[in-house]
Amino acid sequence: MAITLRSTKNKGYNISLNELLDHPRIQKIVPWIVPLSVLILWEISSRTGLLSTRILPAPSGVIATAYRLASTGELFQHIAISAGRAISGFIVGGSIGFGLGLLNGFSRVAEKLLDSSLQMLRTIPNLALIPLVILWFGIGDQARLFLVSIGVFFPLYLNTFHGIRSVDPGLIEMGRVYGLKTPQLLWQIIFPGALSSILVGVRFSLGIMWLTLIVAETIAADSGLGYMAMNAREFMQTDVVVLSIVIYALLGKLADAIARGLEAKFLAWNPNYQ
Predict the structure, then answer these.
(1) What sign results for the dihedral spanned by CA atoms 268, 269, 270, 274?
(2) How far apart are CA 89 and CA 212, in angstroms?
(3) How far apart (Å, rounded) are the C-alpha atoms in residues 251 and 232?
(4) CB–CB of 188/175 below 8 Å?
């Protein structure tokens, strides 16, 4: 497809749509067109009364609420508590998942002993464990930490296991021919070969981390973004509820951007990530 642009001097020239979209400045603008259009339509609908603010407050109202809560420090306090829970759960569950993925990926014996049991556990939705988790840990932070850890565990386990098993055996054999010892094989061939799959697991885990935390913080919590949303629901403060959801989305996007940054840094040698 080609479109024609004309200058003020009536000199016509053709530029294809693909060339236009490939322009660096256009590439930065394009991803924001749809979300900004939605925000503008949302604001107009709220201001003109087409959309009741009791159902969905205007974006300007949500921003004003965010400023009010931020000025008192309440908003940052809830964000810090939720982020602490999410990071703690990711470290615990992710570390166990990564460790077991390494163990089962390297050892056929460990795979036979553990993988079938882990696959059975994987089919249980982690949120279905909430009644049992409350019986085990009560309604404190331990229950939320457990749920988040279970949520992030399986994506990292599966992708680490798959990444190690997907390393080209020819590369491992070539390493042995060149005299590399087992630790050198692991560090110089197997781990770099599995790294792309491991980082995909990290991205999946980060998404599930926030999803699980949203639900976990609605269980009799007394702090955090989930508590802020549930407390606002009691008083019909839809602007605070929407603000909580938006912050969850922004934190999820930030976590995904960090994971993509890790991919760009550690997989710069891989042509698929350049």
Answers:
(1) positive
(2) 10
(3) 20
(4) yes
Could you give the 3-state DSSP secondary structure of residue 235? Answer: coil
Give the span between the Cα atoms of 99 and 35, in whole angstroms: 39
Note the pLDDT tens digit of each residue in 66-94.
999 999 988 999 999 999 999 999 999 99
Which one-letter amino acid corresponds to residue 4? T
Say yes or no to pLDDT of 1 above 70: no
Does residue 234 surpass a pLDDT of 90?
no
21-34 burial code (b ≥16 CB/10 A, e <16): eeeeeeeeeeeeee
Query: In Å, how far from its chain's centre is CA 75?
Result: 21
Secondary structure E strands in the chain: 2-6, 12-16
Tokens representing 170?
Answer: 């020819």
The pairing of strands 12-16 and 2-6 is antiparallel
* Enclosing H/E stretch for 149: helix 141-165
Biggest alpha carbon distance in the chain? 78
Look up residue 50 and give its amino acid. Answer: L
